[in-house]
Design brief:
The chain is 36% helix and 11% strand. It is of the alpha+beta class and 192 residues long. The chain has 2 domains: 15-128, no CATH class; 129-161, no CATH class.
């Protein structure tokens, strides 16, 4: 299976089996779902992070975990085709029917929208910054200046800092921490 630089499957028929939905694909899909100019990239990333906090590595979550405001966001994403709902019914011991509602990613739609958004970004001359990847190998993270990262998303924050911060650190290095004092012996010296 071939993927884009961002790890988005290039073949739409394979996108369903491509593994979990990653942050970049979801953020691009959210931005594309309202139109490229309709949402700032940072707003799309914020919504994507919020949604992924519920899903984690799961492909579906139970509706009961959502607060009303969160549910409104999920309904908005359902309207755009990014999420879908499913319902399961079970019979309780006393004979009553119990309904359980789930939210699920529509991975085919997410990867389709993400591919469209990547193309729109390229057409608009926007730089594509990738902080995550579907690749399982170490160092798979592509960072803003073209270098590869450690594979940990938490390290990407250091690459968001401007070059002037790192140059300042080189010119004015932090002072070395003080060395610990040597312990002093108390009491009489040991005799043979």
């Amino acid at each position: 299976m071939t993927t884009t630089r961002a790890g988005i499957p290039t073949d739409a028929t394979l996108s369903y089996a491509a593994g979990p939905v990653d942050f970049d694909s979801l953020a691009k899909a959210i931005r594309r779902s309202v139109g490229h100019e309709g949402m700032r990239p940072e707003d799309a990333r914020s919504i994507a992070a919020h949604v992924l906090n519920f899903f984690g590595f799961n492909e579906r979550i139970i509706d009961n975990v959502l607060e009303p405001d969160d549910r409104d966001t999920f309904y908005m994403l359902e309207d755009t085709g990014i999420l879908e709902t499913e319902r399961d019914e079970t019979t309780l011991y006393d004979g009553r029917e119990w309904r359980i509602h789930y939210w699920m990613f529509r991975k085919d739609r997410i990867f389709e929208l993400a591919r469209e958004e990547s193309a729109a970004m390229a057409a608009a001359g926007e730089a594509e910054v990738v902080y995550s990847s579907n690749s399982n190998r170490s160092g798979a993270f592509l960072l803003p200046h073209g270098e590869t990262g450690t594979g940990l998303a938490a390290h990407a924050v250091y690459h968001e800092l401007g070059d002037e911060i790192w140059l300042e650190r080189r010119q004015n290095p932090a002072p070395a921490p003080p060395s610990p004092p040597t312990p002093r012996r108390r009491g009489p010296p040991n005799e043979p």
